[in-house]
UniProtKB/TrEMBL annotation:
It holds the Pfam family Peptidase_S11. GO terms for biological process: cell wall organization; peptidoglycan biosynthetic process; proteolysis; regulation of cell shape. The lineage of its organism: Bacteria, Candidatus Staskawicziibacteriota. InterPro entries: Beta-lactam/transpept-like (IPR012338), Peptidase_S11 (IPR018044), Peptidase_S11_N (IPR001967). This is Peptidase S11 D-alanyl-D-alanine carboxypeptidase A N-terminal domain-containing protein. It comes from Candidatus Staskawiczbacteria bacterium RIFCSPHIGHO2_01_FULL_41_41.
């Protein structure tokens, strides 16, 4: 392992054009003091260490593409294949929530019909003829990622129109490589890039923090007129992490695992988005640790 480290070290030295010999002063040239030379060398060493750490991170992350951004300054911290398009699975539900919030009333009620309950991955807590508010359907969709809840939300304006609104909102947010064909993410044709998903997260953070707040909730209970309490569990392991601001996970065989979330790290609001991962939890934790140790 050590020889690999030193090989990378040597190659980066060559790449940076590291000053091997002491500088020679010519007429009119400003001569650096010893302290200034030392400071310059220390800065170059720090940059070199960060570059090596980023190279190692790139190899360790299983996701085909990822993006880590300081949202407050819009600065890229780390990245990999950011223009690659992938299926996004249930990350779709973040755009579903945005369109629902902007086009419906939270207190509006929906009576669940058969066509709303057809999507695979339904919740037994939602059943035929149950009356549910838009607000509670949003919670069911974002907390437990229930596909029937996301589908039911579309019927306030009509399913086809709702999907058109999702695609239209994507264009408005500059998400030019994002396409939606359903409202919940079961269709692998729902595709995007880590750049576009980061734009969506940033917009939600600045304009609809209430949506992100829902994604942090656990053990949401939906009242049922029959007297039962119908419970929804959060499937996102990071919802229990103190630094987590909000976000969404996704999974499909064609999409593997995906994650899009915001964290408060070292006093910065950091967006972490990864697509087509073998293990989103491990990948995300590595990116969190890297930011904590290198930023």
């Amino acid at each position: 392992m050590n020889y690999k480290f030193f090989l990378i070290f040597f190659l980066v030295f060559c790449f940076l054009g590291w000053p091997i010999a002491p500088a020679i002063a010519y007429e009119g040239e400003v001569v650096l003091t010893t302290e200034e030379h030392i400071k310059e060398l220390q800065e170059q060493i720090a940059r070199l260490k960060a570059l090596i750490a980023d190279i190692v991170l790139y190899k360790e992350i299983s996701a085909q593409s990822y993006l880590v951004v300081d949202v407050d300054s819009n600065t890229v911290i780390s990245q990999k294949n950011i223009t690659q398009s992938h299926s996004i699975a249930s990350i779709t539900k973040l755009m579903n929530a945005l369109v629902a919030v902007e086009n419906t009333s939270g207190n509006e009620s929906i009576i669940l019909q058969e066509e709303m309950l057809k999507p695979q991955g339904y919740s037994p807590s939602l059943f035929l003829k149950l009356t549910v508010t838009v607000k509670n359907l949003l919670k069911a969709s974002l907390i437990q990622s229930t596909n029937d809840a996301a589908q039911a939300l579309t019927y306030v304006v009509g399913n086809d129109k709702f999907i058109r609104l999702m695609n239209g909102r994507a264009r408005q947010l500059g998400m030019d490589d994002t396409y939606f064909y359903d409202a919940h993410g079961l269709d692998p044709s729902n595709r995007s890039t880590v750049v576009d998903i980061t734009k969506l997260l940033t917009y939600l953070y600045n304009n609809h923090p209430d949506i992100l707040e829902i994604t942090k909730e656990n053990d949401f209970q939906l009242p049922d007129p029959t007297g039962k309490l119908l419970t929804f569990k959060n499937l996102n392991a990071f919802s229990r992490v103190a630094e987590f601001i909000g976000g969404k996970t996704g999974y499909l065989p064609q999409a593997r695992q995906s994650f899009a979330g915001l964290f408060d790290l070292n006093g910065k609001t950091v967006a972490i988005v990864l697509l087509y991962s073998n293990n989103r939890q491990t990948d995300t934790q590595k990116l969190i640790d890297w930011v904590k140790n290198n930023e």
